[in-house]
């Protein structure tokens, strides 16, 4: 692959006021993947539109390396066509009247014919869509369309790639395969790739860096694990896959042990990791449904500190898992495998014990 | 039946629909995508011929084109002959008369385009012109066909405006509908009938061909 132009990090420092919220982002995106994670309507797509030049921020600046995309003070605002940005929209926006080949070649009109051919071939091969070249978008499957959209945005050798939930609706295997092809392509280019999603599975699949956006603001940044294991808001906790969000207030701090006890609204107590809180403070405790163990009889000699007695209230089959609601002081969502549900005979009315490790309980702590 | 009148009407309708298409494409594009608050004023002006009696339009057209009208004087200065009661005068008046029939289907089809496709074109480096030619027009093709056909058919059958600004000069301004009117006035019913029937058939055939070829041409009016 030919050497790319000089690529710098993307630095964004903008504000834009909307009737319902204000987008306010200050962040530097280095080369490689950065996942932008947050609930729907948090301003993720709006941020991408500002970076691409489709929306104009009220104030601030956007730069890619030494190229100024937008600078309110210097009165610079490059039009989208001059920004060398690859952008895969959520709707993909393939041109319905053009073949795969023509879609992919759309951005190469200023390149001479031989090179144009060559670059189209190269990208069709990289994304394994050569056999589809003569088809129209209506004749493609979901995964094929997503590959074509990626190829179309990368063939122009952008200095920056914006992906707005480009792989939603794909099964994990297909998604992984496309991500591998994208990673392989970016080995040579090393450009910043901003990957917007509200899907927890995609975050795990991509890894590297993550920032969260909520109500137009950047929440936290770090590795996916560090950020998602300590959600800072309710919406984020829900998006990060914490099915249980329980209201509680702090009863007792045990600083020496690094834990504290909280009393749930339903009356039962839990031991949770020590947080920045005082006795009497209201907190929210987040627990993943898959992190709760169930037992047929009262278990003894476990390291887990929270053992609660309860009754199964409802049971719902969801393919590879069984979702249970268990009443134990509060209402808990618990996910178990179908095999476990069968062998423990878990059905409504069944008495069970819930086992929750202290460190499976996270405090949702707004900064 | 007057071949001369029929040929003249066809020539007028073709000239008008070609010129209208060229003018209406950018006008409709602008109307569909502008954020200008006053655009309803322009929309109203364009739609006026839909509600005004053709004689009103024809009257003002005649005033403008006459020897003391702005248009008439400019024409006289440029070409050295008057504009009223000429084929060119007829074309100009017909342009205004049929303008909404070209603009409205185009605006409707432009407005129904997925804006993200235009965003995609812009991000891929396309200029406005390139995205217009390669994305907007091909996807709005049914609207383009509708616009051409409606302005053609509408001009072919016009009467009031022609009568006002064209008069009744054989081979120059005497169109089919004037011919039919004249023959009816002269009690030449069989002559009038022949011409009327021909106009009816031509209109029907043109519309059937277009609607038959292009399943998506189904409405002359925007849904808003």
Descriptive notes:
The complex is a heterodimer of chains A (367) and B (224). Chain A has helices spanning 44-52, 100-105, 113-126, 142-154, 172-189, 200-206, 224-228, 234-239, 338-343; strands at 10-17, 22-29, 32-37, 59-64, 67-71, 76-77, 85-88, 160-164, 192-197, 209-214, 217-222, 244-254, 259-264, 269-273, 282-287, 293-295, 306-318, 321-328, 330-336, 351-356, 362-364. Chain A is globular and about 75 Å long. Chain A has 367 residues and is of the alpha+beta class. Helices cover 23% and strands 35% of the residues of chain A. Chain A has two domains: 10-238, 3-Layer(aba) Sandwich (Rossmann fold), CATH 3.40.50.300; 242-364, RNA polymerase II/Efflux pump adaptor protein, barrel-sandwich hybrid domain (OB fold (Dihydrolipoamide Acetyltransferase, E2P)), CATH 2.40.50.100. Chain B is mainly alpha-helical. In chain B, helix 1 runs parallel beside helix 5 (87-111) and helix 5 (87-111) runs antiparallel to helix 8 (141-156). At the A-B interface, strand 7 of A face helix 6 and helix 7 of B.
What labels describe this entry?
heterodimer; A: 367 residues; alpha+beta; Rossmann fold; OB fold (Dihydrolipoamide Acetyltransferase, E2P); six-stranded mixed β-sheet; five-stranded antiparallel β-sheet; 21 strands; 23% helix; 35% strand; globular; disordered N terminus; B: 224 residues; mainly alpha; MetI-like fold; 11 helices; 76% helix; disordered C terminus
CATH class assignment of chain B: Mainly Alpha
CATH superfamily of the largest domain in chain A: P-loop containing nucleotide triphosphate hydrolases
Query: What's the overall geometry of chain A?
Result: globular
Which ranges of chain B are low-confidence, i.e. pLDDT below 50, for 5 or more consecutive residues? 217-224
What is Rg of chain B? 19 Å
